Amino acid sequence: MASQERQGKRQRLFVALDLPDKIRDGLTAWGEGELIDPGLRPVRPESLHVTLVFLGHREADEAAAIVEAVRNLSAPPVLMKLEDPISLPRRRRAAVFALPAPSPATTDLHHGLVDKMVTAGLHEDDGRDFWPHVTVARVRQEGRRPRRPTAVTRRPGDLPDPLKEPFYAVRLTLYRSELQPGGARYVPLAQVELS
Ligand code: 2AM
């Protein structure tokens, strides 16, 4: 899949807010103590982000137009904060652990970005509610058919207080997601500093 995508075929794209290094480092240190259940696959430090718009699999010409559109964006700094981890889906066995990131500025940015992309013919709004969050770990699958998430007995504990202080997201990045055996790798294609 990844090599096919690199050969100019379809690319899996999304736009995200990047977290400041201090927050990424803090989350990484927290994860080293808390994301330790063998059933968990912690997200790589460089892959921690808040997805703003998921664009799905796109042809090379569309991807080029999206890169151009993102390069021409400008956005003010975005204030956000993180909350203690929750698991999803809510009433079934955990498949992912994520930190809610409630932030009116992020929600405004999401809607503004969706409007621009839709107007430019680069995206179709799926109408789903936007839920800003940082995914910190995915749960390994077990069994063959049906596959289901491994039971996680050592659930991640709460964040330390300094990681729950508000902070500004540093940039907006268009990523290509390359699916690999060890987990997805995200390649930045266009970046906009928020200032
Ligand atoms: P997640 O963190 O909630 O899993 C790359 O896969 C990024 O795009 C991830 O942040 C992921 O969100 C998000 N993503 C993947 N599929 C998506 C979908 N169908 N709708 C919205 N976001 C999606």
Q: Could you say which overall geometry the principal axes of the C-alpha atoms support?
A: globular
Helix content: 10-25%
> Which molecules other than protein and nucleic acid are bound?
adenosine-2'-monophosphate
Kindly report the average pLDDT value: 94
Report the strand count.
Answer: 12
Q: In what range is the share of β-strand residues?
A: 25-35%
> Within the largest sheet, what's the order of strands?
3-1-11-12
Q: pLDDT below 50 for ≥5 consecutive residues: which ranges?
A: 1-5
Number of helices: 4
Rg calculated over all Cα atoms? 17 Å
Structural class of the helix and strand makeup? Answer: alpha+beta
- Give a quick account of the main beta sheet: strands, pairing sense, barrel closure: 4 strands, antiparallel
User: For the terminal residues, how far apart are their CA atoms?
Assistant: 36 Å
- Can you write the helix and strand succession as a string? HEHEEHEEEHEEEEEE
Describe what you observe in this structure.
It is a single chain. This protein has four helices and twelve strands; from the N terminus they run H-E-H-E-E-H-E-E-E-H-E-E-E-E-E-E. A hairpin with a 5-residue loop joins strand 8 and strand 9. The radius of gyration is 17 Å and the shape is globular. The N terminus is likely disordered. The chain has 195 residues and is an alpha+beta fold. 24% of the residues lie in helices and 32% in strands. The strands form four sheets. A four-stranded antiparallel sheet has the order 3-1-11-12. The structure holds adenosine-2'-monophosphate (2AM). Adenosine-2'-monophosphate binds next to strand 3.
